[in-house]
Design goal:
By secondary structure, the chain is an alpha/beta fold. The protein has twelve helices and 13 strands. The chain is about 45% helix and about 15% strand.
Length: about 350
């Protein structure tokens, strides 16, 4: 079984066509950057509801800088919506691998607007499955979620043991897994679901009511704004740097082991970091870059409805079947993320 670095080298000498849905988003744009830097052809689909054109420009620029060559001809962008089957069919035409990242994320967003979350995450997902089936793609890799574990208390989380969902968002991501399984059994559409655990890194949006905690805290700290911690700060998560998620997607798509298909894998570190620890790490690494910065102490507020107290993933299944081997632990990932945010701020 090839490791990730060997696989990337192999891809540089054999070109496939990949579709990334949600390509202008945080994870999608990082996948775009890596695939372009491996000399792959990429089709991107996005409606810009939560993604940004600047993410596309940055991903292409970073890939071109790495290879010192023009890669724009290897990327074709389609502005469209996964809720429109015609857009999905157009995007899947002549595609080898689908990396389906498009979704409406956020537990609070789903609680505030369950209908829209359902329409995008379930109806849109079904459209993508149908389009992928009809286009005879080699593999359909999709973004699943750790929220699927719901109220099951055991740690670390093992793929085969889940509890009851705690939010509409969690329901949608579980339904995705059920649909993918049905399409593999009935239509022989090969698929792999990747249950992401709190992915973070460059190009993650720090703004808005549904921003993830790491980019929000980094951005707020750099702006001299208040930091808020939901609960008493003991809540913990298995924070996972973006490069690990990119690795898992490419390994999953290119896996030639039949037993590795038509199942789900945790994408994480098998580690836990509390919100209090996270705040201290962010403060420390920002001060290393900006020594004289005055950083405010955090303020505590009520625990957020729909969240679980603790989350940690068993990643042995992904390591055994996909050869997944996280390249970044939490501290290294935070350092690189903070460096990116500081550098971006200084360019403004």
């Amino acid at each position: 079984m090839e490791n990730y670095e060997q696989l990337k080298e192999k891809l540089k000498h054999k070109q496939y066509t990949w579709l990334i849905t949600g390509v202008a988003g945080f994870i999608g744009s990082n996948l775009l950057e890596t695939l372009l830097s491996c000399n792959q052809k990429v089709i991107g689909l996005d409606n810009f509801e939560t993604g940004y054109k600047e993410n596309l420009d940055a991903a292409i620029y970073d890939a071109e800088r790495l290879l010192s060559k023009d890669l724009k001809h290897n990327f074709h962008f389609i502005e469209g919506d996964i809720q429109n089957l015609d857009d999905c069919m157009k995007a899947c035409n002549c595609v080898d691998y689908v990396l389906h990242q498009a979704a409406l994320g956020s537990v609070p967003r789903s609680i505030n607007d369950p209908i829209k979350t359902n329409q995008t995450n379930i109806s849109g997902f079904l459209n993508m499955l149908v389009a992928s089936r009809d286009s005879n793609v080699k593999k359909f890799v999709y973004a699943a979620s750790s929220s699927t574990y719901g109220d099951h208390p055991d740690l670390p989380k093992v793929e085969e043991i889940i509890g009851n969902p705690l939010s509409p968002y969690a329901v949608t991501k579980y339904v995705n897994e059920l649909y993918a399984n049905i399409f593999s059994e009935i239509y022989n559409l090969q698929s792999i679901g990747l249950r992401y655990f709190n992915i973070f890194g460059k190009r993650q949006d720090p703004n808005g009511a549904y921003a993830a905690v790491i980019p929000q805290w980094i951005s707020s700290t750099l702006a001299g704004e208040e930091i808020y911690i939901n609960g008493n700060g003991s809540t913990s998560r298995d924070f996972c740097y973006i490069e690990n998620a990119v690795q898992a997607n490419i390994l999953a798509a290119m896996s030639s082991e039949p037993m590795a298909n038509n199942t789900v894998y945790n994408v994480a570190l098998n580690n836990r970091t509390s919100l209090n620890e996270l705040y201290q790490y962010i403060k420390k690494y920002i001060l290393e870059l900006i020594p004289n910065m005055d950083i405010k102490d955090p303020k505590f507020r009520d625990f957020r409805v729909g969240d679980v107290l603790h989350s940690q993933a068993d990643i042995s299944k992904a390591m055994n079947f996909l050869n997944y081997n996280p390249s970044h632990q939490i501290k290294q990932g935070l350092k690189e993320t903070i460096y990116w945010f500081v550098n971006k701020q200084q360019k403004v």
